[in-house]
Queue: 3 jobs
Job 1
Amino acid sequence: MTEIGIKLRKKSFEFALRIVKLARFLETDKKDWVLSRQILKSGTSIGANVRESRFAQSTADFVSKLTIARKEAEETEYWLELLTAAEMISEKQRISLEKDLNWIIATLVNSVKVSKRSLKTA
């Protein structure tokens, strides 16, 4: 596993942990189960797909797993924006989470591009 792969795996796990804590906060303090479940599903799915990609059966499978992770990251970004607009989380909370999320998204995009290039040359 590459250094960037190790960092992506670690960051996506740490992000998922932050999302679990956010969902718990939304459920207990805001009494919201619907939005907390939505962000919990998408926010934790990112790391799960990154983890699955480690044992991909092929480069195409690897690209597929990381593409799914990216889609889940984009969905998570939507839920963060909605929660902020609904005043369920603060702008400061959103910015902090999005900082990590943006790094994850950029890394996923780059990893997919590099992997797709290797598919074309193979």
Job 2
Amino acid sequence: MAYAFTRLTCEGRDYGAGHRAMQASGLGPADVWGFFHGLFGVASNELIVVTYGDVAHVHDAIAGMDEVVAANTLLLEPTVRPTEYAPRSREGLYVFRFFEVEHKDVDEIAALSFEAWKTFENVDDYQAEPQGLFRQQDTTAPTGRTLLCTWYDGLNSWQASRTPPATASDNFRQRHTLTRSTVAYATRLLT
């Protein structure tokens, strides 16, 4: 299953016109995994759209809208998550974290993440659930990006999850050694 992550800038001061235009026209034949507006690291007139399925022409469809002044799309493939192909529906905080990596390390990064999540998700101190860990489709260069999307019930859970159980922490530390840099964007799902 293919995915596309598109970060776009809408005409005007906020994302509303672009969001309404995409809802009205649809992005078919791709399905929408979620529309996300920014809390931190995303401008008020920017919108993040994640689509799945037949995503080959999503960028052209979004960039061609009158309400959109700029768009960047990254084509992705899931690794160990998501395991179901359905739109996101749960309210809360969605953090998108890009990792700059060597493509040869992606399978190990996915395995370390999978192991870490076994204890990261099942704690009483916070509510968190990784939604997807994606690899970049184009691997012709030696380095590229992976994308992790994690749901939290709110900012307090995100903060508390910075100190996960020791077994998760060990796996995250090993994963960190395989990454060159990271950047994260805090968003909310538009329902």
Job 3
Amino acid sequence: MKVVILAGGLGTRISEESHLRPKPMIEIGGKPILWHIMKIYSYYGFNEFVICLGYKQHIVKEFFANYFLHMSDVTFDLEKNEMMVHNNFSEHWKVTLVDTGYSTMTGGRVKRVRHYLGEEPFMLTYGDGVSTVDIPALLRFHEKHGKIATITTVNVGQRFGVINIESDGTITSFREKAKEDGTVINGGFMVMNPGIFDYLEGDETVLEKEPLERLAMDGQLMAYHHQGFWKCMDTQRDKQSLEKMWDSGEAPWKLWD
């Protein structure tokens, strides 16, 4: 199953760094947060990625084009015009990098990569959030209920819209937050059947608005609730928090050796 990662936005809330590079390329522990997300999926055996690019897309392409240069020790023999890579570790990844437009919205970006996905279900997440979500369990939940889409819901300090969920996990609506609300929000780590494309129109389509709202109205959207670690790198403060976890050797999302 392929993993689609949304990595094309401007990252305006973390503009201290995103003016130089796309937010998914901002580093935690010397590696882009995009790399951390891919390592999470790879840990569970999902190694084929379709990455939706836009803002400063060339930086992401250059990172993967020169992956060994970024990740390994190298010797340059300038006289012979040769480069020798030392201790190179090759990820078992197949990465498709797609220019989905500079200002395309999230739903439009997903629609633009349809021809890379075929007619099979796929996973979808954002390029700025890490988690300990049990991805195989998420996939089993999705396959069991048979609806078009599953999103992973998480409890966090509230900055986002609110999701109303029935006891069986069926999502009934989305709305703006209120003071008395709980804090269950969309944490990404989604699974989609090809039927999602019937809900996506053009580049202006915001996945989190009309498409998910219509799916909820049609009874085709389910919530997989994750109670463990989840964090979105939305601001510089979030980045510093993740960096502190990584430096301490206690980054919860680091499932790999």
